[in-house]
Amino acid sequence: MSSLQSVDLVRFTDDIKAWGRALGFQHVGVSDIDLGRHEQYLQRWLENGYHGDMQFMQAHGTKRSRPEELVPGTVRVISVRMDYLPPDASFARNLSDGSLGYISRYALGRDYHKVLRKRLKQLGDKITAALADTAFRPFVDSAPVLEHAIAEKAGVGWTGKHSLTLSKEAGSWFFLGELFINLPLPTDTPVEEGCGSCTACMTICPTQAIVAPYTVDARKCISYLTIEHDGEIPEVYRKAMGNRIYGCDDCQLICPWNRYADITRESDFHPRQVLHGQSLLTLFSWDEATFLHNTEGSPIRRIGFDKWQRNIAVALGNAPYDEAVVTALREALPHATALVRPHIEWALAQHHDKKSQDGQSRQLQRLTRAVTKGLPRDA
C-alpha cells in the first residue's frame, strides 16, 4: 500500500479511471470543488420558487454547492456515468397509445441508486487499497450534491437546455454518481457545449416547463408533478400529462444527441414487463400489496400507492373513451383517499364530456347523411 507522497497522481488517476470502467462506468472524470458560478445560479433558481415543494433543495444551505462543507476534507469529486438505455425501443409507441401507462425509461428497471452506489463503494475501496491516505464517500442522487455541475467540470458532458447532462457519445440516457475524495487528483477539462441554437427540448415540453434555456420550473414539470409533488396535480397540467404516470422523457426523446446513445450493458436497467407497456386499467387495478410487490427494488416504490393511483387516475381521464374505464373509475371512487378522489372525479368528468361530444358527433353525421341523401344528384 502506497502513501500520498510516493504516488504519481497523474498515473494513479489513470488507474482510477480504468478501475471505474472495469466496474461498469462508461465515463470517469475528476472535478475540483469550486462550484461558485453554479451556486449563484442555484440561488436565483430557489429565489424564483422553481423548486416547488422540494424543500430539500434549500434545506442544506451552501452544502449543495460546497462539497467540502458536506464532507470535510474533500478536495476532488470523481464523477461517473452509467448508461441506462434499454434494448426495447417501443417507448415512443407506448407514449402515443393513450390506453397504456407511460413510465420514464430510467425507472423501468432496478433502482439505479443501489446499482451505482455499490459500484462507487467498490471503486472507493479499490483506491483505498492502493493508497493508504484515501478517504471517500459515494453519492447517487441521495444528498445535497450539484451532480450536473460536477459532471460538467469533470468533462463528463455539458449541461443541456433541459438542464440534464449531455454527452456527444451517450446523449442523456445515463445516470450520474459521485465519489467525494480527499486526494488532490489532476482534474479534467470541461467539454465544449453542443446544444447550439437547438431548442427542440424547450418546444416539445408538454407543459412548457423549460422557461428559459437551462432553466426548468419544476412546478410545471411532469416528472416533478408525478414524483416529487405530494398534493393534488393542478388541473391546468392534467391534460398535458397524457398517459405519463411516472416521469416524462419528452425532452430526451426529441434531443438529437440521443441518436448516438448506446444500449446499456446492465441487465438491471432492462424494463420489467410488469411495468412496461401495461394498460392503465391493469395498473389501476392493483391494490397496495400488489403495488409494493411489483415495485420492489424499483425507484417507483418511493412515491407510494396514493400518488401512484393519483397519477393513473389522471391518465385514465386522458385515455380514449371506454365504458370499462368509466366503470373502473366509478368502482374506485367510494374507496379513494382524499388525495386520489379529486383526480378520479376529474377523470370521470373528462369521460362524460367525451361521451357527450361523441354523441353530438354521431348525430351530426346522421343529419349530414340524411341531408345529403335528399339532395338532387346534380346538387
TrEMBL record:
Cofactor binding, per record: Binds 2 [4Fe-4S] clusters per monomer.
Binding locations of [4Fe-4S] cluster 1: C195, C198, C201, C255
Residue ranges of domain 4Fe-4S ferredoxin-type in the record: 183-215
Protein's cellular compartments: Cytoplasm
Enzyme Commission (EC) number: 1.17.99.6
GO molecular function: epoxyqueuosine reductase activity
Catalyses which reaction(s): epoxyqueuosine(34) in tRNA + AH2 = queuosine(34) in tRNA + A + H2O
Domain of life: Bacteria
Pathway: tRNA modification; tRNA-queuosine biosynthesis
Keyword Nuclease in record: no
Keywords: 4Fe-4S, Cobalamin, Cobalt, Cytoplasm, Iron, Iron-sulfur, Metal-binding, Oxidoreductase, Queuosine biosynthesis, tRNA processing
Cofactor(s) annotated in UniProt: [4Fe-4S] cluster; cob(II)alamin
Name of one Pfam family that matches: QueG_DUF1730
Active site: D141 (proton donor)
Protein residues bound to cob(II)alamin: R64, D141, T159, L176, S223, C248, D249
Annotated positions binding [4Fe-4S] cluster 2: C205, C221, C248, C251
Region (Disordered): 350-379
Enzyme kind, highest EC tier: oxidoreductase
HAMAP family (UniProt xref): QueG
Protein role: Catalyzes the conversion of epoxyqueuosine (oQ) to queuosine (Q), which is a hypermodified base found in the wobble positions of tRNA(Asp), tRNA(Asn), tRNA(His) and tRNA(Tyr).
Family membership noted in the UniProt record: Belongs to the QueG family.
Subunit relationships: Monomer.
Protein name: Epoxyqueuosine reductase
Organism: Alteromonas salexigens
Source taxonomy: Bacteria, Pseudomonadati, Pseudomonadota, Gammaproteobacteria, Alteromonadales
Name of the encoding gene: queG
